[in-house]
Amino acid sequence: MQLSEVTVFVGFFSLMFFDLIKAQWNTNEYMKREHSLIKPYQGSGTGILHWDFIGSTMVTNNYIRLTPDLQSKSGAIWNSVPVSVRNWDLQVQFKVHGKGKDLFGDGFAVWYSKDRMQPGIVFGSTDLFHGLAVILDTYSNHNGPHNHQHPYISAMINNGTLHYDHDRDGTHTQLAGCEAKFRNVDYDTYISVKYEHDVLTVK
Ligand SMILES: [Ca+2]
């Protein structure tokens, strides 16, 4: 993967009621302000410095909601500053909740991609993307063979030639994945994505 040599952006996307409470980007223990979302998100102006949002995304002082608890909604928030460091480490604090008992939304993804602000069918961004997607899939389409439960977290790398297949929940293009129970829980969930010395670690 040659991500350090291209211009990449960070984005978050969801098709569900999702609150992004905090997102931080660390490089060698040094937080990069231009890649971080820090409270209060909304200052005196209407925008967020270094971040752009589209679709149903709503920003308040305390949280960023990608989508409301309604059908067929999508939203995204993208960092507007290209990433120039080779090794990086980011954390996202989030909550996935709604009025439904169990099923709501398709999921969301943390994007490290060249294809910024391009709404599409793959968790709010474009198919045939360039870069990395860490996908938090909450809906089991499961029309093909796989035996994991949902929610399911997986990583996918693309050079613009691979299609994400929702019918198979992306399993044939994933690098790896695991189940994680983050839907409709009372507490916030944290995900850590680290890319260091060509090794990707998601916790
Ligand atoms: Ca799915």
Q: Mean of the pLDDT scores?
A: 83
Number of domains: 1
Number of strands: 14
Note the gap between the termini.
Answer: 20 Å
Shape call: globular
Determine the oligomeric state from the structure: single chain
The kinds of small molecule bound in this structure are: calcium ion
Low-confidence stretches: 1-8, 13-18
CATH architecture annotation name? Sandwich
SSE order: EEEEEEEEEEEEEE
Approximate helicity band:
under 10%
Number of helical segments? 0
- Radius of gyration, Cα only, in angstroms? 16 Å
Keywords: Membrane, Signal, Transmembrane, Transmembrane helix
Subcellular location: Membrane
Protein name: VIP36-like protein
GO molecular function: D-mannose binding
Per-chain topology:
Elements: E1 9-14, E2 18-27, E3 30-31, E4 51-55, E5 58-59, E6 64-65, E7 75-79, E8 88-96, E9 107-113, E10 130-137, E11 152-159, E12 176-179, E13 189-196, E14 199-202
Antiparallel strand pairs: 1-7, 1-9, 2-3, 2-6, 2-8, 4-7, 5-6, 8-13, 9-10, 10-11, 11-12, 13-14
Bound molecules: calcium ion.
The site of calcium ion (CA) has 7 residues, from loops.
Domain L-type lectin-like: 29-203
Keywords: Membrane, Signal, Transmembrane, Transmembrane helix
Protein name: VIP36-like protein
Report on this model:
Helices cover 0% and strands 39% of the residues. The two termini are 20 Å apart. It has a single domain (3-202), classed as Sandwich (Jelly Rolls). Strand 5 and strand 6 form a beta hairpin. It is globular. It is mainly beta and 203 residues long. The chain has strands at residues 9-14, 18-27, 30-31, 51-55, 58-59, 64-65, 75-79, 88-96, 107-113, 130-137, 152-159, 176-179, 189-196, 199-202. The strands form 2 sheets. A 7-stranded antiparallel beta sheet has the order 4-7-1-9-10-11-12, with no helix packed on it. Residues 106, 137, 139-141, 166, 169 line the site of calcium ion. Pfam families: Lectin_leg-like (PF03388). It comes from Agrilus planipennis (Emerald ash borer). One of its GO terms (cellular component) is Golgi membrane. It is a single-pass type I membrane protein. Keywords: Membrane, Signal, Transmembrane, Transmembrane helix.
